[in-house]
Amino acid sequence: MKNLIIVRHSKSSWELPLNDIDRPLSKRGIHNAHFIATKIQDLLPKSFVIWSSNAKRARETAMIFSQNLLINYENIIIKEELYTFDEINLEEIIKKCENMYDNLILFGHNEAITKFVNKFGDLFINNVPTSGVVSMQFDIDDWTKLKKGKIIKSVFPSHYKHEQYKSE
Q1: Where are the domains of the chain?
Q2: For 76-100, what is the mean pLDDT?
Q3: Pairing outcome for strands 76-79 and 49-53
Q4: H helix runs in the chain, sequence order
Q5: Which distant-in-sequence residues (6+ apart) come within 8 Å of 42 by Cβ?
Q6: CA-CA distance, 106 to 92, in Å (whole number)?
């Protein structure tokens, strides 16, 4: 059995004229990353490997999640190839995960994430939003044999809209 927790980076800022890869999180993105990270503790397996895109907004999202979930940020592996918006590339990257890891947590980008989730999940998700988390399970023992699995849970900011904005 292999498990994937896939996280779309939080909302990024467009305030400065930066290259796409260098855009940081917006104030709302920072807030939502902290908020959603507190809601996924029960999804975390006992052991896992964490990968993040090298884009600033993905790395910042991973850092916020690691702080809230008490994960050492140094354990997060930054992968340039995760700076992709193509689900076929994303699929190929996931298939390269070492089989010694049954659990992969990945911080990446849309539209690759939404298309991947819909290709390999058993529920249709119109759009995985920024700060969105989708937990998936696959009945395989080898990442290279990735096939249709099931969505265990999705955690999106909109699921907590009333709770989220009370504290602001």
Answers
A1: 2-166
A2: 97
A3: parallel
A4: 27-37, 56-68, 87-95, 112-120, 161-166
A5: none
A6: 13
Where b means 16+ CB within 10 Å and e means fewer, 110-133 reads bebbbbbbbebbeeebeebbbbbb
Helix (H, G, I), strand (E, B) or coil at 141: coil
Contact in structure between 24 and 156 (CB atoms under 8 Å)? no
Architecture of domain 2-166: 3-Layer(aba) Sandwich (3.40)
- Looking only at the bridges linking them, the beta strands covering 133-138 and 49-53 are unpaired
For residue range 10-30, list pLDDT tens digits in order: 999 998 889 999 999 999 999
pTM score, whole prediction:
0.93
**CA–CA distance, 131 with 138 (Å, rounded to integer):** 23
Tens of pLDDT, residues 37-77: 999 999 999 899 999 999 999 999 999 999 999 999 999 99
Conformational region of residue 96, where left means phi above 0, alpha means psi within -120 to 50, and beta covers everything else: alpha
The pLDDT value given to residue 40: 94
The β-bridge partners of 79 are: 53
